[in-house]
Specification:
L-arginine/glycine Amidinotransferase, Chain A; 3-stranded mixed beta sheet; 8 helices; 15 strands; binds citrulline; EC 3.5.3.6
Length: about 290
């Protein structure tokens, strides 16, 4: 099976996803830091609409089953692994309730015939939401509550022989250790050199790198960032400049449309906003080309 995804925006050919099921239905909001509006049954309906949109572009979905293992956050398949051009990398989660998830990805990659390049080991921690391909040989990684220096060093050692430079950038604490704040919470690449950002929370050196590499940065409006708990910014490119976002944030949408993006929306008031993860988080790109 073809694999490899060292771009955030190249056409999404294959993706790993987990349809939420019994685990989400039985989840207690307080155990998972889910906010007001969480409704497992409605979240599942909204996920189905989202998955249809992804599939409608011809993207092949590798399904990871919700077997009732109680891992409610496992629908956010972006986080437990990466897929480099040289094989999958199994990560190690910073959120204690998510520690079992990389093993689910390991099983899926084995079944799909995708080799494993390596695995982040304790005391290292890296979550996929902290990893952003600036270009095919530069991986930016947010150092914060979910990802630590030991994890970044392991990732750098794994990827250096393949010509990839891994750069760590400090994230703020945001809303505290229980809340979800990844590097991808403050940037969504939209096209090869175009990204939607929440400028006030971008690590300065990362912002400088993006400018040096010729990126145009669209600055998402603060009121919609606050109203959506940051989910207005979580935008998934299916092909460069053709993106999916959570409905209800017209200024953010118009900003992307003014930069010539095609924007499609889906309703996610039960799925994404209370569960702290958007369309990028619900997808683990396995092959982008
Ligand atoms: N990449 C992402 O931003 N993933 C969102 C994960 C949300 C999940 N509730 C978590 O706290 O890990």
């Amino acid at each position: 099976m073809t694999y490899g995804s060292q771009s955030m925006t190249a056409p999404l050919k294959r993706v790993a996803m987990r349809k939420p099921g019994r685990s989400l239905l039985s989840a207690k909001a307080a155990d998972w830091h889910y906010g007001p509006g969480f409704d497992g049954a409605r979240a599942i309906e909204q996920f189905d609409v989202f998955a249809d949109l992804v599939a409608s572009c011809g993207t092949e979905i590798i399904w990871i089953e919700d077997t009732g293992d109680g891992l409610a956050d496992a629908m956010f398949t972006h986080d437990p692994s990466l897929v480099s051009d040289h094989g999958a990398i199994l990560l190690r989660m910073g959120k204690p309730g998510r520690m079992a998830e990389p093993d689910l990805h390991a099983v899926s990659y084995q079944a799909a015939g995708i080799p494993v390049l390596g695995r982040i080991e304790a005391p290292g921690a890296v979550e996929g939401g902290d990893c952003v391909w600036v270009d095919t040989t530069t991986l930016a990684v947010g150092r914060g509550v979910r990802t630590n220096q030991a994890g970044i060093e392991q990732l750098a050692a794994m990827l250096a022989p393949h010509g990839v430079t891994v750069l760590g950038f400090d994230l703020p604490l945001g809303n505290g250790a229980d809340a979800c704040l990844h590097l991808m919470s403050v940037i969504s690449p939209l096209d090869e050199k175009l990204a939607l950002v929440y400028a006030p929370m971008l690590p300065v050196a990362f912002w400088q790198l993006l400018k040096d590499r010729g990126y145009t940065l669209l600055e998402a409006p603060a009121d919609e960032f606050a109203a959506s708990y940051g989910l207005n910014l979580n935008v998934l490119p299916l092909v460069p400049g053709d993106v999916l976002m959570v409905d209800g944030f017209p200024k953010t949408r118009a900003l992307m449309e003014s930069a010539k993006c095609r924007v499609r929306v889906f309703n996610a008031d039960a799925l994404c906003i209370p569960c702290e993860g958007g369309p990028t988080c619900l997808t683990r790109p396995v092959w982008r080309e």
